[in-house]
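Onboarding guide, step 5: your first structure request.
Type a short instruction followed by the sequence, for example:

Predict the 3D structure of this protein.
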Amino acid sequence: MGKIVLITGAASGFGRGVAFGLAKRGHQVIAGCQIWPQVSELRQAAKEEGLDLQVIKLDVLNEIDRNKAFGFEIDVLFNNAGIMESGPMLEIPMSVMRSVFETNVFGALEVAQGFGRQMVKRGSGRIVWTSSVAGLVKVPFDGAYAASKHAVEAICSALHDELKPYGVDVVTVNPGAFRTGFNDTGMESMDQWWEQGERVVAHWPVRELTHQSDPAEMIEAIIEVIEAKNPMYRTVRPAGAADMVKAEQLDVWNRRV
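The system replies with structure tokens like these:
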């Protein structure tokens, strides 16, 4: 039997891929996009694919959009919308730092709260939250994004225990570097402000993102988490990333300054 799944950040990347994949598998998908042009484009793309996809405007920072979305009764929330801003922690403007937390933490939490209350009252439901490998390890020159995802990890850990007695599942999916364009523009973002002031530490070393994985692997894993009866609490992809995370976390325990 198909599920009713609402996806935030469905205009591109994992959100779009999961929306299309679930629709093809017979689920009822409500795909949220941040701005109206994305809504129009996604509707047309779904139509061309022959998919029955309900596309709505859902900017997670917009109270009107959130309240409109809360009118849907859903089985699963895929809490996926997010932004990436890079730059060394000593230099990153506070306005940029705050914008990352507004979207990735506060906006996403408000969406989770709204649908979570609905699920608790019903006694069932699942929140699948896009965290990141960056939420589990250090990421120099990308500390703002990593910090926001570390916050997501803490929130999801608490929510998991708080909502389990009410029949509501909370799980995370933790992508590494995938070819969705998200990481590329996230690295480039610091160029917008870097030359607008005097800097005392280095710019992010120039490098091409040549070792990103095919996003199909992550999309397939997320769909499995949404459909599974008893998914893992944490799903890290690509496959080898979990070993890297565990090794780096162990290194932190043994680190000396």
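Each response can be followed by summary notes, for example: The chain has a mean pLDDT of 95.
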